[in-house]
Design goal:
- The chain is an alpha+beta fold.
- It contains 14 helices and eleven strands.
- The protein folds into two domains: 38-129, Phosphorylase Kinase, domain 1 (2-Layer Sandwich); 137-355, Transferase(Phosphotransferase), domain 1.
- Helix content is 37%, strand content 15%.
- It is globular and about 60 Å long.
- The two termini are 18 Å apart.
Length: 357
């Protein structure tokens, strides 16, 4: 499903919110006196003097993404996000762009896409990024000749490590989903990297985020219920991805977004016997901890990395074959892509409005 994004435009409009929740945030581990990442602006040369734009890789409302190659040896390849400056005329749009590049400059981790350089020219911003050529996580899992619980565990561990690092740097991703879990290359043991930080935000204090955004099936209940939130919303999204990777189908799925949101509010999901009988109890236990509606009680990404399912012996998980679940995942992955194409032209805010009916 496509993302939704709604910002309150009328200052008189009131939003009902829940109580302030005190908790020990993972972000407390970061020293607030540490400087944020320095944005790597390049002023000594122009973008087109350094790079040659190649094929179009994708497009959105504010930007297009191209492949690019350096003009001088050794001819490195990159992905370049090209943003028209005239589309960032409002203070809010410029601030969102600054936040995105500031966050990407701050995050230096092997399982997170890397920002290389930025260029500011008369009509465009050019954001030069690491090029990830291995495709999406779900596509790779669907293509495996054999699929075991260990394969799922090893893939998910890389994503949890990336998110735990983000949270240690006071960053909430806010749009974790399969499309944003990409492989570095086409090798079988390729690194998985978390990408697309367009909705990411620094969490300056607990429950300080209010913007309603995300992708419906992966959205935490506190966001849907208009309760101020923080990075713990990401942990719910991780639970949804983990459930889908293991079971082959999403925990919350309905023909309408309103129906999906109702399932999320109620925490209503099922471990169907046809797909979950052979899966280890530890995996189910971890999912239950992540899909806990109360963020105060929800398992964090750092706690998940210490969970017995993550640290247990791989030999036992290797014996648990998920071929039946893989077939179900292939069907769901195809359906998900059809929906993504069909919904590409719809207004993003439309999703939130529909859900309120």
């Amino acid at each position: 499903m496509s993302c939704f994004h709604l910002c309150w435009k009328d200052p008189r409009e009131r939003v009902k919110v829940g109580p302030f929740i005190e908790y020990a945030s993972a972000s407390a581990k970061r020293n607030d006196k540490e400087p944020r990442g320095i944005i790597p602006w390049v002023h000594s040369r122009s973008f087109h003097h350094t790079y040659e734009l190649r094929e179009l890789l994708g497009s959105g409302s504010f930007a297009v993404v191209h492949s690019a190659i350096t003009r001088e040896p050794p001819f490195h390849s990159y992905a370049v996000k090209v943003i028209q400056r005239k589309k960032l005329l409002t203070h809010k749009a410029l601030l969102a762009f600054k936040d995105e590049v500031q966050i990407m400059a701050t995050l230096q981790h092997g399982n997170i896409i890397q920002l290389h350089e930025l260029y500011k020219e008369r009509d465009f911003f050019f954001v030069v990024l690491e090029k990830l050529e291995g495709g999406e996580l779900f596509d790779r899992l669907c293509e495996r000749s054999t699929y075991t619980e260990k394969n799922a565990r090893d893939a998910m561990r890389m994503i949890f490590e990336a998110v735990a690092y983000c949270h240690s740097q006071q960053v909430a991703h806010r749009d974790l989903k399969p499309e944003n879990c990409l492989l570095k290359d086409t090798s079988e043991d390729s690194l998985i990297k978390v990408a697309d930080f367009g909705f990411a935000k620094f969490v300056e204090r607990p429950n300080s985020l209010r913007t309603l955004l995300g992708s419906p099936s992966y959205t935490a209940p506190e966001i849907i219920n208009y309760i101020p939130y923080d990075e713990r919303a990401d942990n719910w999204s991780l639970g949804v991805i983990l459930f889908t990777v293991l079971g082959g189908y999403p925990p919350f799925y309905h023909p309408t977004i309103h129906g999906t949101f109702q399932q999320i509010r109620q925490g209503s999901y099922s471990f169907l016997p046809d797909f979950w009988t052979g899966i280890s109890p530890d995996a189910k236990n971890l999912i239950k901890g992540l899909l806990t509606r109360d963020p105060r009680e929800r398992t964090t990404s750092e706690q998940a990395l210490q969970h017995p399912w993550m640290t247990g012996r791989g030999e036992l998980l290797e014996q648990r074959c998920l071929s039946n679940n893989q077939e179900r995942l292939q069907d769901y992955n195809s359906e998900r892509k059809r929906e993504r194409r069909a919904n590409a032209v719809r207004s993003a805010s439309m999703y939130w409005l529909v859900s309120r009916r």
